[in-house]
Design goal:
Layout: H1 2-13, H2 17-38, H3 45-62, H4 71-86, E1 98-99, E2 104-105, H5 117-136, H6 139-150, H7 155-162, H8 166-185
Length: about 190
């Protein structure tokens, strides 16, 4: 197995896309075990897996065999530190996250205290800016944002629905969020 990985690494360094895909597939169990060991979050599994693929691709470019380290050890450390650093990032929870055996969602447990008149005005301004931002998106960006945030579809399902690759959906979503941020922050 190590010789096969070294062969695929050598071809990948020469920009052989087929070899890169095979190498990622060979290292997928390592990615999955790193996720489970260092940062397991079933709600983010697909995203964490995608990040693992990116780590492997970056490791291919960064790896230098002259530094006295094997490629598998190098990748393993990069995955470990990436997923450990995820704990340092600000963690957000979805209000639609199931609780109590999936019978209820987190939002069901929050008591409504209502908004003050000032809060209502601020909320209306935010909604108007968001509407303005959504109008400025391309039709494809709008479709992805609505499917992801309003319809609650996963990136994978959006890709299947639109007939585009997972990474393309991620890029469209990221670009759309950047556009929205620029408009809302103004």
């Amino acid at each position: 197995m190590y010789k096969e990985i070294e062969r695929l690494l050598s071809l990948s360094k020469k920009n052989d896309k087929n070899a890169k895909e095979k190498l990622i597939l060979k290292l997928e169990p390592l990615i999955i075990s790193s996720i489970k060991r260092y940062y397991y979050n079933p709600y983010m599994y697909e995203d964490l897996l995608q990040e693992g693929y990116e780590i492997v691709l970056n490791a291919i470019e960064e790896y230098n065999p002259n530094k006295g380290c094997h490629f598998l050890g190098f990748v393993k450390l990069k995955l470990k530190y990436h997923y450990l650093n995820k704990h340092k990032e600000k963690q957000t929870s979805s209000l639609n996250q199931p609780v109590k055996d999936g019978d209820m969602e987190l939002i069901d447990l929050i008591e409504d205290e209502g908004f003050s008149p000032l809060d209502n005005i601020i909320q209306k301004e935010k909604i108007n800016k968001l509407k303005e931002g959504i109008k400025s998106l391309t039709p494809r960006q709008r479709e992805v944002i609505i499917a992801y945030y309003i319809e609650g579809m996963s990136i994978k399902d959006i890709g299947k629905k639109l007939g585009i690759a997972y990474r393309t959906v991620v890029n469209i979503k990221t670009n759309a969020i950047d556009v929205l941020k620029n408009i809302i922050v103004k």
